[in-house]
Amino acid sequence: MTTTTNSVLDAMQRELQCSVCMSLMKQPTSISCAHMFCKQCIETKMQQKATCPLCNHLIKQLHPMPNIQIIIDEFIKLKQEYQVDDPFIDPASSSTEEDKTLITSLDIKKAQARAALQAQENSLPVQEKECRILKKGHKPELNIPNMTFVDKMNTEVTHIVLPADKHNIVDRSLTYYLGILYGCFIVNEQWLENCIKRGHIIPESRYEISGDREMGRTGAPEKARKNKEAKKPNLFRGLKVCIIDDDLQRQVEKCILAGGGIVEDSCQDVIVCSDDPESKRQELKDRFTHRTLLLKSWIFDSICNFELLKKDDYCL
After folding, report:
1. Where does the RING-type domain lie (predicted)?
2. Are the C-beta atoms of residues 145 and 267 closer than 8 Å to each other?
3. pTM check: above 0.70
């Protein structure tokens, strides 16, 4: 096996190895910043410090990644097929033909996967549902039945198109928050491009946004959408909130109302305030004794998980 084959396997190994134990990941687990580690490795690290070993981002949740485990299992089979115990060691026997075979087999598998996904989309009946799409910036011309653009976020919006990275992770925005709370499909730009290419609405599942850059992969858009389909109460249903001294008061208010909550001038439940200096926080504590004072990040983080997070972690 030549250096070319070794380089291919080397690159694959680096993508799939845990940066803590430097071995192939076991029970791959993603954290808030989207970095991945072995489940046991990251749990051990969290006992020492609840931050990412690579970027020092605060770890708020762990997310199992079964799809990555499947890829790792296939990679192990590939190493066995080419009789490689360690991709960093170049065996004495080598063959250019083996290199070509390995690279070709990888390309074929990728092409087969892409073809299978496209065939699946093409085999499905054309969806007749109404699509009202919110997209910022340039809007391509649409000649697809039942698909129209809208200019503002409202309860009639069915789809939100956002720019995303290769992991379908997006930046946080009010549009993203409201899209989750309204139970919209939140998809990447490739979905819209492929709809236009094929002339009809295609399934959204492989294009759906999986999380944001602060919390990582949370699956919040899908969880919120399924919650709406099941006609379950929205995230903030019944929650009474008073918003004070907040530079993002209007954003917070929109999110609370969209999630089924109630905004009051004065309430006994929850008071949301901005991330002010410690000196001002003490003033608020003295002013609102025996009340629950929370930072506004509790609202936004709860939306991005589509789960009411522990208030204790956000108390003043």
Report:
1. 18-56
2. no
3. no
